[in-house]
Amino acid sequence: MSYIVETLNGCTKKFVFNFETIDLSTEIKNAMIRKQKTVSFKGFRAGKAPLAMVEQMYGPQMEHEALNQFVQTQFFDAVEKEKVRVVGYPSFENMKYNKGKSASFDAIVEVFPEVTLKDYSSYAFKKDAVTVTDEDIEALKKNFLSSKAEMVEVKETETKLDKGLFAVINFEGEKENGERPDNMKATEYLLEIGNGSFIPGFEEGLCGMKKGEKRTLNLEFPKEYQVPDLQGMKVKFFVELLEIKERKLPEFKDEMVKELGFESTEDFVTKNKASLKIQKEKQSVQKLHQEILDKFVADNKFEVPNALVHQQEDHLKEELRGNLKSQGFSDDMMEEYFHKWHADLHTKSEFQVRSALILDALGKKFNVEVTEQDIAVKYEEMAKTTGMDVEQISKFYNSNAKAKNNISFAIREEKTFEQLGKEIKIS
Predict the structure, then answer these.
(1) Which of left, alpha, beta for 328 (phi over 0: left; psi -120 to 50: alpha)?
(2) Each residue of 155-202: pLDDT tens digit?
(3) What is the pLDDT of residues 29-57, one digit of tens each?
(4) Any residues with CB less than 8 A from the CB of 185 and at least 6 apart, and which?
(5) Tens digit of pLDDT for each residue in 113-136?
């Protein structure tokens, strides 16, 4: 054997290779032949130049490529022989090559750690009870009716502006230097009080106003405001309340819910109650699983591969980019955001990687496997909660290997938690 394996830490190994004799003639010749097919010389058609001419021109380069290929092959052969689960790409160091005679090099690579969990038989958790209340149903009705609501003016002159009402206002902002920029003023602007769409203190400052009243608000933009020039800036807002409006909801009738495919208002309540119960049950289970993972992570300390943490960070950033972009963040603003919250993103990514490794270890312990039947059941569950056809869902995932793999991974975690639930106390 031309190598030895050293363990640098729980998730890093070093392969030390030493070849006292080395013959790269075959690799070099093959590299020359490949190069011959792609180069052209004056007087020769492409791919028809003599091999000796190719060797004269590209000899050193081909030897370097042959050596690189040799190094790669030796490393991956060793990894396969040692049955090492590699993470990311290796780092090759201390390369020494005595042309045509000997070679040595080191390959440092991160690996999946061997996770040995501490005894968890005494663990005990409480799962939130799931109930669907009348208030939940009323909120569903209100949400449904809100799209059909009519905005009407409040005629009573003594009515004071409060949360839940709408204000029609003229407003203008003034900086400390007296400047009044166009992006800080508007006329006949409709604002829902309590919606939180304006900076902190603005909507609160309008509460209690009556129609026709004017008010000056002394406020400060948040330090993380999306417009850099306004971050942390003190400002005055001059506001005039033109009207107070309220949203009038129509009566909840059979004719309305039939537009959404329900037979009657009773059918609407029955089906949405069942759907809401499924949703709440899912939230309860997710909360329980998170508490279980928190406990396992706190009690089991082991090193995790940096490559996996970086991959997870990139994944979280991609998810965040979509949300930030929808809020009007530019590329520069997003990079500034990621820089500011780098430590939090790193901590969250490390926790998620550590959790996944713990669940993987538990899954192996319980011999958890995901069958096509498990996936079919999951498709049916998704159909019930989304209203989509099972065949549509199945067709999508069966034609998308990555998406189906993610489904399989989620199912494996669910089955792992099910088995774990038999070994810990859950009340």
Answers:
(1) left
(2) 888 899 999 899 999 999 999 899 998 888 999 999 999 988 899 999
(3) 888 888 888 887 777 777 777 878 877 88
(4) 171, 172, 173
(5) 989 999 999 999 999 999 999 999
The model's pTM is: 0.71
Tokens describing residue 46: 């492409």
Task: Show the tokens assigned to 181.
Answer: 């920029």
Quickly name the fold that domain 3-111 has. Answer: Alpha-Beta Plaits (3.30.70)
Q: In this predicted model, what pLDDT tens digit does every residue of 291-341 receive, in sequence order?
A: 999 999 999 999 999 999 999 999 999 989 988 888 888 888 889 889 999
Distance, in Å, from the CA atom of 88 to the CA atom of 110, rounded to the nearest integer, reads 7
Please give the CATH architecture assigned to the domain spanning 256-426: Orthogonal Bundle (1.10)
Residue 243 and residue 136 in contact, taking contact as beta carbons nearer than 8 Å: no
Distance of CA 342 to the CA centre of its chain: 15
d(CA 63, CA 393): 53
CATH number of 150-248: 3.10.50.40
Q: Give me the phi and psi of 77, to 5 degrees please.
A: -65, -40
- Residue ranges covered by each domain of the chain: 3-111, 150-248, 256-426
Tell me 424's DSSP state: S
Task: Note every long-range contact of 344-348, with CB atoms under 8 Å and residues 24 or more positions apart, other chains counting.
Answer: 345/313, 345/316, 345/317, 346/309, 346/313, 348/316
CB atoms within 10 A of CB 79: 19
